[in-house]
Amino acid sequence: MKNDESLTAPSGKLAGNSVGIAHIVFFVVAAAAPLTAVVGATPPAFAFGNGAGVPGAFVLAGLLYLIFSVGFTAMSRHISGAGAFYTYIANGIGKPAGVAGAFIALLTYSSVQVAVYGLIGVFTNGAMAALGLDLPWWVWSFAFLAITHLAGQRNITFSGAILGVCMLAEIVILLLLDIGIVLHGGGPEGMSASAFMPSTVFTPGLGVSLVFVVGSFIGFEATAIFGEEAHRPEITIPRATYISVLLIAVFYAFSTWAIVQFYGPSKIQETANASLNTFYFDAATAVLGPWAAHTMNVLLITSLFACILSFHNTLNRYFFALGREGLAFEVLGKVHEIHGSPYVAGILQSGIAAVVLAVFVIAGQDPLAVVFSYMSALAVLGILAVQAMVSIAIIMFFRKDNKGYGPWRTTIAPILALIGLAGAIVLVISNLGLLAGTSNIVVDSFPVIVVLIGLIGAGFALSIKKASPERYAALGRVFAD
């Protein structure tokens, strides 16, 4: 049995100086899964939300996260480590809150990863069945789980290279569609900027649209979670954060604006409601030809794989940080001798995903209606809760010492971000049934589940404080300034 001192010391350090801005941006944007988000998430936003105002909703969400980034990047210069949001919250609000945030973050990323495993199984099943290989969806899900695990065991730059290729491919096909629409002069109603006008954006359906739009930014904290492995993190992390948010917001706003032009602002809501599953594929076929729709189908699978791989690496580093600090099995804090990756954490994370997937399969649950819809709804709610906690942590952190920053970065921007995130949480809770595809006791309990997980995390931290004060004192400070 090891003494408390050994539990407080780091049992490993990730390979430093190994990733740059491009790799981190790839992780963030790949987690956002551009093709999946645009083709899968925006049709419901068009159909049930503010219709032609969806592009403006992306602009609003982008502004919210840019404002969030002001304080987030300021704090990133003083707080670093593989725990990311956990470390921020622990150093800002306190250790119990930090562990609560870590538990909610684990719930969030585990949920979204399982959701995407269900979705990729369905899409791959459809694609392969057309080629004569008709296997159950879960066979493909477990196959991608194995591939993801092997990739995650390698050095982080290996995953970064894969994500870069996948991300560029899906962005190219969407840009071809967008540019094609523009070159054709739009659709029956021509082209206009009405999608960004306040009268179009701020309609009663805006709240519903934001529920889907905000979910497109999940994976945001990947900029900070790789700070320990980044080259010159004090410069790399802030730049990667702003680039990622701007890239996601601008690209999504442009792509949704283009599709509004194709169908026409007055017809977009009606058309989306009638063709949720073929909304973009129909446009791609009409503008570029049948090959584009087939290509989109294939790239949807690679987009989902990139999303899974990104979240797999994020989860690995959370488990790694918790193991290194004694919040979980210390062996999770070990790094691979060759690749410098948190390989033991990766084994645990893949095992958990496999067990959860197996439970859904044994229970005979539908991969779309339950696995994907339920888990993604829970993930959106969880990540907003953690981001709101980070905003509070930023304010409290700089109250102790403003580190030479002005009130805009240390107080005003974080408060504005907190208000925006709190509003988003209210919107998500109000529209959980729409986001999950149904309303029942399970879906309605998601807010309670998130709170309970947070309370369990805080209670666990307090139990450590009582049993091992030395270990408790080290929480969240392994790489703190």
**Annotation field: number of helices:** 22
The assigned structural class equals: mainly alpha
Mean pLDDT: 84
Low-confidence stretches: 1-11
Query: How many distinct beta strands?
Result: 0
- Helix percent reads over 70%
Distance between the termini: 31 Å
Description of the molecule:
By secondary structure, this protein is mostly helical. The protein has helices at 4-8, 21-32, 34-48, 54-76, 85-92, 95-129, 137-152, 156-183, 198-201, 206-215, 222-225, 233-263, 268-274, 279-287, 290-324, 343-362, 367-400, 407-430, 432-436, 441-444, 446-467, 469-474. The two termini are 31 Å apart.
Summarize the structure.
Helix content is 74%, strand content 0%. It contains 22 helices and no strands. α5 runs antiparallel to α6 (95-129) and α6 (95-129) packs across α16.
